[in-house]
Amino acid sequence: MKKILIVDDEPNIVMSLEYTFKKNNFEVFIARDGQEALDILKKQLPDVIILDVMMPMVDGFATLEQIKKDERLKHCKVIFLSAKNKEKDIEKGLSLGANLYIVKPFSIKKLVDQVHELMQ
C-alpha cells in the first residue's frame, strides 16, 4: 500500500484529502504543522508528501528544507498545496525541490491524478 503524508493546518482540507486518499488505497498520515510532519517522518517513509506553506511552528518551505537533508526521504515526492500563489512563492517551492506546486483552491480529483502520475 502506498503511503501519503498530508501536512496542513486547515481541518476541512485535511479531512477531505484523508478521505479521498484512503478511498484510493493509500495509507494516510496527518500532520497539522511542519514540526509534526518532521516527527512523523522519523518513523514513516511516505511515497508522497502534500505540504501546505503557511502553517504554525515550522512553515512548509522550512519543512521541505529539512526533508531534503534526510537521505531516507530522497525517494519522497513532495507537492506544495498552498494559497500562496505569487510567482516568487511558486519558484521558491520548486527551487527547494518540490515536485509540484498546486495553488488553492484546487480540484481533489486532479490532485489525486497528479499524485498517481508522480508515482509512475
Automatic annotation (TrEMBL):
The keyword Transcription applies. It comes from Flavobacterium caseinilyticum. Residues 3-119 form the Response regulatory domain. GO terms for molecular function: DNA binding. It comes from the Bacteria. Gene3D superfamilies: 3.40.50.2300. The keyword Repressor does not apply. InterPro entries: Bact_response_regulator, CheY-like_superfamily, Sig_transdc_resp-reg_receiver. PROSITE patterns: RESPONSE_REGULATORY. This is Response regulator.
